[in-house]
Each structure stands twice: as C-alpha cells, then as structure tokens.
Amino acid sequence: MASEQLIEYEDWRDVKKADWTWPNFSPMEMACRGSGAIRVSVDFMKRLSQIRTHLGQPMHLTSACRTTIHNDHINGAPRSFHICDDDLGRGQRGCLAVDVAATEGYYRGMLFSIAWAQGFSVGWNAKRGFLHLDRRIDVGWRQTTFDY
Ligand SMILES: [Zn+2]
Asked: 20: CA distance to ligand 1 center in Å?
C-alpha cells in the first residue's frame, strides 16, 4: 500500500485485515473513541511503528483519531492534530497524533527521546500520565515540544 494512502472507515471494525500490517497497534485503539471512525495514513502508521520497534516495549494509546465532534466533546485543542475528518486548512490527511500512556519515568524518557529523534513533536503533562506525539512536521510546521 502506498504510504500516502489513507485507512479510512466510518467504523474501525470494517478495516480489512490485509490492509492493517501493524501488529503492535489495533484499528480499535487507533479509532475515534467517540464515533468509532478511523482515518489515518499508512505513512503515519509506519512512523508510529518505527517508534514501537525502537522502544521495544508496548505502547498503550489513550487517544488517536478524533472526529471534530468528538474532539470538541472532550475539549481537545480546537485545531488538534488528532482531528481526522478535517484538513484544517493545512492539508492534514487524517490523524497525525497519538497520546501514549507513560506514567513511569524511565519509560517516558525513552519514549520522548525516540519519538523526538524520529521527527515527532512531543507534548507532556506528567499529572495526566501520557505523552502526546504528533507529526506536525508533515504539514510543514516546525518540530516542537510543549507542556500542557
Ligand atoms: Zn494528544
């Protein structure tokens, strides 16, 4: 499958097994927690899987794709990189962000450094217990880090 191709379904249960080649992540955990929709590029999944390979440990996703409605519902940032159903005027094709549970200090440091080295921007809030990883560089934004 070409890397720019989108995995795009109203319901993650309809994702064809042959089109999902990332065994460490499931369509269910990538899908919108509100609507069940999934819209993510093959390129993003490849990059996420590269982090997982380097990390060599499980990555538990607490949020990935979000429809605009669901993002509003959970008070996400209005122009969040999680948004999967709107290009936001910046040419975004599908979800470009995941939140990964990271409560333990060593794990969080490893995940942060690997994701950063792979071009991901990283947001954190230790109290909320996860790292936000996004590919804003894919829409021409500068790589960054931020505190919530
Ligand atoms: Zn996030």
From this structure: 22
Asked if residue 26 is part of any domain, the answer here is: yes
**Total domains in the fold of the chain:** 1
Concatenated DSSP letters for 63-123? Answer: E--B-HHHHHHTT--TT-TTB-S--TTTT--S--EEEEE--SHHHHHHHHHHHHHTT-EEE
Domain span including residue 12? 6-147
Q: Indicate the pLDDT class of residue 1, thresholds 50, 70 and 90.
A: low
**pLDDT-based confidence at 126, cuts 50/70/90?**
confident
141 found inside a domain: yes
CA of 121 to the centre of ligand 1 (A): 10
